[in-house]
Design a protein that fits this description.
The chain is about 45% helix and about 20% strand. The protein is α/β, with parallel strands linked by helices and about 425 residues long. The protein folds into three domains: about 100 residues, Probable tRNA modification gtpase trme, domain 1 (Gyrase A, domain 2, 2-Layer Sandwich); about 140 residues, Four Helix Bundle (Hemerythrin (Met), subunit A), CATH 1.20.120.430; about 150 residues, Rossmann fold (3-Layer(aba) Sandwich), CATH 3.40.50. A hairpin with a 2-residue loop joins strand 8 and strand 9. Helix 4 runs antiparallel to helix 5, helix 6 runs antiparallel to helix 7 and helix 7 packs antiparallel against helix 12. The longest helix has 25 residues. One of its GO terms (molecular function) is metal ion binding. InterPro entries: G_TrmE (IPR031168), GTP-bd (IPR006073), GTP-bd_TrmE_N (IPR018948), GTPase_MnmE (IPR004520), MnmE_dom2 (IPR027368), MnmE_helical (IPR025867), P-loop_NTPase (IPR027417), Small_GTP-bd (IPR005225).
Length: about 425
């Protein structure tokens, strides 16, 4: 893969003042000399006239980034061009003529991984950082990109290597008078490591919630004002609002920033007994969303009393009384009016508090992907199997299984089947 020299746009599409093309690979130096003259000093922005043959392509800022101190670990450069499409097209043609090719999605970051500049966890963090929509997502991606998870898993792998070395000694030298405390320390080390993995897994899925966003569902009886509340929170007419009960048949979702966290708020069909087949299907879908939600806003109006939501834990439900412009909310219940706006500030503040509580993480960096959770679960289960093993050889094999599971997380071992899935989701220029 690294035999080719690749290029791609590093800036977004659309009208702009500047377009950045980045190039990486073994021919980067000769190509830059061919279009810009002599190489500029490393990592120093230089204004150059770009030429291809006798044709002047642009007056551009050039950055020469020789490896291994570059993003990919290879020689590379950046061209900060005027953003006219004709300029980008002609410069790209010149690069192809001089021996470069367009990059595949994620190929720059994949090369950084291949050359040891980053590990697989950091590569995923870069993808998350590009996609970050909220401050919380940005902070989490930066923490992972700085190696917080990598350092934790590398520490576990180092401890596991030591444990495995002691286990191999017990297998290879069964007739030697090894001190009995060797096996005792080994078993204690396995138990401690397994306990740490258990604690890491028992994080309430906080990292994954930050990454994908909190699911908040508005549920309640017909005409409780669910669609009106969704529209007010969204700041636009996302859902149809009428006085007719059963107007909402399908789920309607909007994405908001609540206290720096991404939240997906969904309006659902009114919950009631009905013989209308279409409305009944809407109610079935509403209950599906309610049971999948991280938080449910159970909306009702006085003097009605809200019936409990089936199969939904009480701690996941925020009961809110709407239409307080007509009837006041009872004591202890948050009251709002989606019509006048009364109480909406208090509701948004309470939602932000609950979202922050769901995503708050103290201590080690949280798991952010199902792949991470599956790998740690496999390693934890293998350690539990090692603790139960009756024979030293079986214990040793279980420890090796745990080592391989940790190695796949960072990309240390056995990752070829993961690379396409990880890097295929990147934009072309990353």
């Amino acid at each position: 893969m690294s035999d080719a020299t690749i290029f791609a746009r590093a800036t977004g599409a659309g009208r702009a003042a500047i377009t950045i093309l980045r190039v990486s690979g073994p021919k980067a130096g000769p190509i830059l000399e061919a279009i810009a003259g002599r190489l500029p000093p490393p990592r120093l922005a230089s204004l150059r006239t770009l030429r291809h043959g006798t044709d002047v392509l642009d007056h551009a800022v050039v950055l020469w980034l020789p490896g291994p101190r570059s993003y990919t670990g290879e020689d590379g450069f950046e061209l900060h061009l005027h953003a006219g499409p004709a300029i980008e097209h002609d410069v790209a043609d010149a690069l192809v003529t001089l021996g470069a090719r367009p990059a595949e999605p994620g190929e720059f970051t994949r090369r950084a991984f291949t050359h040891g500049r980053i590990d697989l966890l950091q590569a995923e963090a870069i993808a998350d950082l590009i996609e970050a929509e909220t401050s919380a997502q940005r902070r989490q991606a930066l923490t992972q990109g700085d190696g917080a998870l990598s350092r934790l898993y590398d520490d576990w792998a180092q401890r596991l290597r030591t444990i495995l070395a002691h286990q191999e000694a017990l297998i290879d030298f069964p007739d030697e008078d090894l001190p009995p405390e060797v096996e005792a320390r080994l078993l204690t080390g396995i138990a401690d490591l397994r306990a740490q993995m258990d604690a890491h897994l028992n994080d309430g899925h906080r990292g994954e919630l930050v990454r994908r966003g909190i699911s908040i569902v508005i549920a309640g009886a017909p005409n409780a004002g669910k669609s009106s509340l969704l529209n007010v929170l969204a700041g636009r007419d996302a859902a149809i609002v009428t006085d007719r009960a059963g107007t909402t048949r399908d789920a309607i979702s909007v994405t908001l920033d609540l206290g720096g966290q991404r939240a997906v708020i969904t309006d659902t069909a009114g919950l009631r007994e009905t013989e209308d087949a279409i409305e009944a299907e809407g109610i079935r879908r509403a209950m599906f969303h309610v049971k999948q939600a991280d938080l449910v806003v159970h909306l009702y109006t006085e003097p009605d009393r809200p019936a409990p939501l089936a199969d939904v834990p009480v701690e996941d439900v925020l009961t809110v009384c709407n239409k307080t412009d007509l009837h006041p909310a009872p004591d202890g219940v948050l009251g709002i009016s989606a019509t006048t706006g009364a109480g909406l500030g208090a509701l948004q503040a309470e939602l932000a508090i609950r979202v922050t509580r769901l995503t708050h993480s103290a201590g080690a960096a949280p798991l952010t992907r199902a792949r991470h959770r599956a790998g740690i679960t496999e390693a934890r289960d293998a350690l539990a199997e090692a603790e139960r093993a009756a024979w030293p050889e079986l214990r040793g094999e279980a420890l090796r299984v745990a080592m391989r599971a940790l190695g796949r997380l960072t990309g240390a071992v056995g990752v070829e089947d993961l690379l396409e899935a990880v890097f295929g989701s990147f934009c072309i220029g990353k």
